[in-house]
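CATEGORY: protein folding

GOAL: derive structure tokens
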Amino acid sequence: MTVDVKRLTYLEYLETPEIKQRYEILDGEMIMTPAPTPYHQGVIGRILFLLQTFVTERNLGIVLGAPVDVIIRQDPLRARQPDILFLSATRSGINNIAQLRTMQVLKTPPDLVVEVLSPGNTRDEMLDKLEDYRKVGVSECWLVSPEAETVEVVRISAEGITTVNIGGIDGILNSELLKDFTPSLKELFK
């Protein structure tokens, strides 16, 4: 017996009421994910706080926490929800949240996405996400592992996806995109 899966179109997506639970849309199919652990959320909160403070003090753009959809393509509909994203004012023209008031979806892809890994995430899943981010022009991703207490900084470009560095608990975060943002990884995990 087969089960028909209803594929969500872009227009149906735009008419969907706000959903509080995390999900991604892969080829029109809405995939719900279980709630992350409290520690996972704590790590996201630390990164969000540090990154928002850095970006706001320098008027570089805006930082948003999940859930915010990044539309990869409209047909078949594909959308990702990174844990954190950064939109530079230079690229997006947005430097305060008031400018988001009338937007139903982001008009510009983020410059940076942060994916905080869960124990069940596979490398293939992450590579699939990175490829989607490459398609829309994201230039950097931080793959954060709360379990291993590491951050992998990944450069994303038309040429491909390359790990720039991996820092452990005694290291610092070395972003190519935000060169002066260098928190110790202990600040993220403790």
The two ends are 50 Å apart (CA to CA). The helical segments are 10-15, 38-57, 89-92, 123-136, 185-189. The CA atoms of residues 117 and 145 lie 5 Å apart. The chain has one domain: 10-189.
